[in-house]
# Entry
Amino acid sequence: MIFEKIFYIISIFTFLIYSIRLFVKYGKNIRLLNILTQTISLTILCLAYINDNQLNLFMQSFVFIFGILLPVVYILIKYFDINIKETYYLLIGDINFLLKKYDLAKKDYQYAIDSYNESYKGYKRLGFTYLKLNDLRNAFDAFASSVEIKKDDYKIYYQLGYIYEELNKKKEAITVLNSGLRIKPDYLPISNLLAIILCEQENYEDALRVYEDALKYRDDNYEIYYNMAVIYTNLGKYIKAQECYKKAIKLNSQLHDAYLGLGQLYLIDKNLDEAEKYLFRATNSEALYAKAYYSLAKLYSLKCEEGKIVSCLKLAIDKDSSYAEKAINEPIFSNIKDFIIGLNMLNEMTNGTSTKLEIDESTEEEFLNQDIANKIENS
# Structure
């Protein structure tokens, strides 16, 4: 008995505090304020009824469900204009989408739209479903209908830009992506896609401006600096490119693509010591391993260190046999052309499997000179 009274007092006190907070927060919204008042009053009355009549647990649950829970759900549905049928089909569609049953999900989302013509979520999810089915034109129509209902959904502008780009409608893609950036200027996926399209059109200066605008909001993003470095490289502005690569590396020390790019720029500038240091770091990446060692082979050609040229080429070709044909046609490797041809023939005979030649049985760090490893550790 005492426990029930304590529970009742605490419940009333909790709802009183909660109601004051809601009144302060939503005081200007008369409709919502009325709903909150009704809900809180109803809850207090039901709690009082339960307490006064000393109902058993079953009856307490019954009063709670039918006296509080269901009326509150009904009030919320009315206030937020929730369409039960639309909500049901959206839920079923989401389940089928997660199960990768895209044809079924497509039908469910269409049912949601049929039950409520202004179903922004229905059109949006239908668009993503069509993308999964590789039906770009229907996906575009669905997303376009979605954005007509909710014009400030910047993520939909990205999807529309992506579809335009896939359909090779570059001008329209640029227009719609710019519209998305006006709504959400710090949304990086739009900036990236827009810059890519501009670069495809060799409009590098505009692409740089896109990234410069993005830096106003995301100056801690290494991808922006890396992409700017690539663009500056294409423009032949190597000093600017080097600065951007270094900023990207500072933000992400594991960005091996930046090490490779920076090393290649130093190689172009004939700054061989710096090039060697950064290219060597790039070899830590499995994806860049062959490319980095091929660039190191070029570097050692400039240094006239024939043993290291051969070792680096061997490592590059073992990883990717296409570098053998490429090296044969490089004038810088003309003095070891016969070796490269032989290595290529060996790779073809072994179906590209790695066969260790008796060139150097030492570790990669040793054949590239211990002082280079020391430079890297101390840099």
Remarks:
- DSSP finds 21 helices and no strands in the chain.
- The chain has a mean pLDDT of 80.
- Residues 2-26 form the longest helix (25 residues).
